[in-house]
Backbone:
């Protein structure tokens, strides 16, 4: 019978899963590892009174959720239930692990870095840290071909930036962690959850947490040199969670979540791990990798378990539209899905329309679309559109948008337009404003930088006062780095400023790409400029322009090939490398490169006929 | 289920042809990133095809050490042998 739970991740949770196995099947050895019949997912309807995130801290919320019967369910690539972690079991396991962590000699406030694959162990360890008063942070799993070296570098950067005292990864990833930990001054222990399990459980009593202490760090970029950890307090977290479950989603009895979002992203961790728990709602998980390879599995999970809430980046919806075959639609029933949250990157109306059209025959109701806007620096969510009303968009004149930074509603057909999705209004306790380059607030329909103020805002970037000061403006206004406008109190995001390029749903800092280039012996500092070009089909390509003195064709090809390979290994995307003569790239008066001007120059040189218009979102 | 390396390589090449510019001939040394330009989205398709073709599950951590056709074929061979 033990073979029924073929859990790749092993440890504590498998024990729980075994305990949950109903007895009759335990006597039938034929229901072997292929079968999920031996364990049942946590139910949708709970036995306790639903409390919507009215807790002071995360562990207080878990203490309450543990008295009910909801929890987390983990499915494999074939859609079989692999393990069940009820909130009750999570509480027990997390408390035991917390005492082990304390036994390691870690003091309250120290940081613990955890490589976050979609597993019960990660969730247990994350909460264990909170029970022990430690500050957890999630690190990504490697996703790109040939990325070994770059991935180790990323891990090292995060271990350093978060000043981790301990780090944990499961057996699949601990080798990378070992390499990254080499030579670390601060790291006192690293290992697998199993190895942590070998430590004795200290008898130290677990203290409750204070709303003003740091709940976790969230890393926002895969930068190899300067990753930044967003500091979120318990108070900010609970405020945001309350906004999400009460105001954004209007969570109620009968809700159930389904998610493929990575646990190392804010939308995955805050939105689909913490938010359901603080409302005592069950969640079904599919690993990100399994979703990416077979997006249909996510929709099947929604269909089979009658999920009502499921979020995705627009890119994930696109994958579904592209990769799910029409013949697969017959078996799907998406009619239970009432909140199809969309966020984390610019939302194109066509992405939503195409998805709705494709999945309407499977019962998908376009009114479920729930565009929202947020960022890790504000815990997760800032604005939500009105739930149950679908998405709404505005068509504005493309020319005026570029020339005057003004969104003028389209008056006549036939003119070139840009269409933006309405991301809705700020959560209670939050304010959004749009300002010009001088920091002055702009009226409706004028495009500028989006700033946010409110109770979910980060304290800063961990141990990084310089970047904190750049991002948190006087009055604690958070500069989001996004451009947009407000219309009738609703926020419309028009793009990122040029320092971030979004490719396939991933945020890539232009600076990180330029740094990769500058690490090459042939490239001098300030002689590389990176930016994104988006074509009419909404495909973004990264362009890297290098001022280059090399004359031999072989040398030039060698540099180009190497740069493409490096960018690929670090970010998993192809890039176009252009070598130009010295002094081609435009500089500001202070000698800094202007990416905006470099991009304009590139467009002129390659004479792309109207390659992107205003829709690139650049200024 | 005896799949030897050469069989795997041959089958793999069939799947890789879709990424291959006409002027390139796929050899074991062909670089998946530089020569076949397999970006993250193409990679997902390829992994799905490989998993279906060979009836295996390809772990992500293993792909971090794969850059050439030979290394990918070798990885598939290892996973199959371990089954």
Residues:
């Amino acid at each position: 019978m033990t073979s029924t739970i073929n859990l790749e991740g092993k440890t504590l949770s498998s024990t729980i899963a075994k305990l949950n196995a109903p007895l009759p099947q335990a006597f039938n050895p034929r229901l072997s590892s292929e079968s999920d019949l031996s364990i049942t997912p946590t139910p949708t309807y709970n036995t306790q009174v639903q409390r919507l995130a009215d807790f002071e801290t995360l562990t207080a919320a878990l203490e309450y959720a543990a008295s009910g019967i909801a929890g987390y369910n983990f499915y494999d690539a074939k859609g079989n239930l692999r393990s069940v972690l009820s909130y009750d079991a999570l509480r027990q396991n997390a408390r035991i692990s917390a005492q082990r962590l304390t036994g390691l000699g870690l003091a309250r406030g120290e940081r613990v870095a955890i490589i976050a694959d979609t597993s019960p162990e990660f969730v247990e360890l994350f909460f264990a840290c909170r029970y022990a008063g430690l500050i957890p942070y999630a690190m990504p799993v490697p996703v790109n071909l040939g990325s070994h070296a770059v991935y180790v570098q990323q891990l090292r950067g995060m271990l350093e930036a978060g000043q981790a005292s301990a780090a944990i990864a499961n057996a699949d990833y601990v080798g990378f962690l070992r390499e990254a930990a080499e030579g670390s001054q601060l790291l006192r222990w690293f290992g697998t959850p199993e190895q942590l399990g070998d430590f004795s459980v200290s008898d130290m009593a677990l203290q409750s947490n204070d709303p003003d202490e740091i709940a976790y760090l969230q890393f926002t970029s895969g930068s190899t040199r300067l990753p930044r950890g967003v500091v979120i307090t318990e108070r900010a977290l609970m405020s945001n969670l309350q906004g999400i479950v009460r105001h954004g989603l209007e969570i109620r009895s009968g809700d159930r979540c389904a998610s493929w979002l990575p646990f190392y992203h804010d939308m995955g961790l805050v939105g689909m791990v913490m938010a359901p728990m603080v409302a005592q709602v069950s969640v079904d998980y599919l690993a990100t990798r399994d979703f990416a390879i077979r997006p249909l599995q996510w929709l099947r999970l929604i269909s089979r378990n009658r999920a009502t809430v499921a979020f995705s980046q627009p890119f994930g919806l696109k994958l579904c539209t592209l990769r799910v075959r029409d013949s697969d639609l017959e078996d799907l029933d998406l009619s239970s899905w009432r909140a199809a949250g969309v966020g984390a990157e610019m939302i194109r109306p066509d992405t939503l329309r195409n998805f709705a059209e494709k999945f309407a025959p499977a019962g998908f109701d376009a009114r479920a679309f729930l565009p929202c806007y947020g960022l890790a620096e504000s815990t997760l969510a800032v604005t939500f559109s009105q739930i149950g009303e679908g998405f709404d968009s505005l068509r504005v004149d493309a020319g005026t948008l570029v020339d005057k930074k003004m969104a003028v509603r389209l008056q006549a057909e036939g003119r070139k337009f840009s269409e933006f999705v309405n991301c809705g209004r700020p959560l209670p306790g939050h304010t959004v404003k749009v300002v010009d380059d001088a920091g002055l607030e702009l009226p409706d329909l004028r495009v500028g930088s989006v700033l946010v103020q409110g109770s979910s805002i980060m304290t800063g970037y961990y141990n990084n006062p310089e970047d904190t000061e750049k991002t948190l403006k006087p009055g604690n206004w958070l500069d989001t780095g996004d451009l947009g406008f407000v219309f009738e109190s609703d926020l419309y995001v028009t793009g990122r400023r040029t320092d971030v390029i979004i490719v396939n749903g991933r945020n890539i800092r232009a600076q990180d790409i330029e740094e990769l280039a500058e690490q090459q012996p042939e490239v001098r500092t300030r002689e590389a400029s990176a930016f994104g070009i988006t074509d009419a089909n909404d495909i973004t390509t990264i362009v890297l322009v290098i001022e280059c003195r090399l004359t031999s064709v072989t040398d030039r090809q060698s540099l180009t090939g190497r740069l493409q390979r490096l960018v690929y290994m670090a970010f998993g995307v192809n890039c176009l490398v252009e070598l130009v003569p010295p002094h081609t790239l435009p500089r500001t008066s202070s000698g800094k490169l202007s990416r905006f001007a470099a991009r304009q120059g590139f467009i002129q040189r390659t004479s792309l006929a109207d390659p992107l218009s205003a829709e690139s979102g650049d200024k | 289920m005896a799949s030897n390396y050469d069989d795997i390589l041959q089958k793999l090449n069939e799947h890789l042809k879709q990424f291959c510019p006409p002027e390139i001939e796929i050899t074991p040394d062909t670089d998946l990133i530089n020569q076949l330009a397999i970006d993250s989205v193409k990679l997902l398709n390829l992994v799905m095809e490989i998993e279906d073709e060979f009836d295996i599950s390809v772990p992500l951590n293993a792909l971090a050490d794969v850059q050439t056709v030979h290394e990918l074929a070798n990885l598939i061979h290892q996973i199959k042998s371990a089954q």
